[in-house]
Amino acid sequence: MTERLRLDFCEVHIFDNYMIVVMDAGVHITLKENLILTNTAYSYFKNKPFIYITHRINSYSVDPAIYKETSKIKNLLGFCVVSQNFMAKSTAQIEKLFLDRPFEIFDTLPEAIVWAQKTLK
């Protein structure tokens, strides 16, 4: 399964057991946007385990409070950030402290996908 969704603040690519999200430049992700993404995940993965991959191509900000809510998604097995940008990686290191799930940071999307597939086994 591969499906592409265009939301008001991002693009979401849905695969069999993971989703890749590319946020729009300059957006600030709050609980409102997180709820939209959570509902998207529920509608595609229901009770099926999945991994959330955020491909940080663009610069945007995240309210760390969203990770408390994201941690409540029972079938979310892991979360990863893909970026080659030093600042994005530094921010991800801080965000990692707020999520109660495996959380990794990668330079490339293929590395993240391999990690997702291993984590789901």
Strands of the biggest beta sheet: in what spatial order?
1-2-3-5-7-8
Strand content: 25-35%
Kindly state the percentage of residues in helix: 25-40%
Uncertain segments of ≥5 residues (pLDDT<50)?
none
Distance between the termini: 18 Å
Report the major sheet: 6 strands, mixed
Count, helices: 4
User: How large, in whole angstroms, is the Cα Rg?
Assistant: 13 Å
- Mean pLDDT rating: 95
The total of beta strands comes to 8
- Mass-distribution shape: globular
Structural class by SSE content? alpha/beta
Structure, explained:
By secondary structure, the chain is α/β, with parallel strands linked by helices. The protein has four helices and eight strands. The longest helix is centred in the N-terminal third of the chain and has 15 residues. The mean pLDDT is 95.
Short description:
35% of the residues lie in helices and 30% in strands. It is of the alpha/beta class.
Helices and strands, with pairings:
Elements: E1 3-6, E2 10-14, E3 18-23, E4 28-29, H1 31-45, E5 50-55, E6 61-62, H2 66-70, E7 76-82, H3 86-95, E8 103-106, H4 109-120
Parallel strand pairs: 3-5, 4-6, 5-7, 7-8
Antiparallel strand pairs: 1-2, 2-3
List keywords for this structure.
alpha/beta; 30% strand; 121 residues; 4 helices
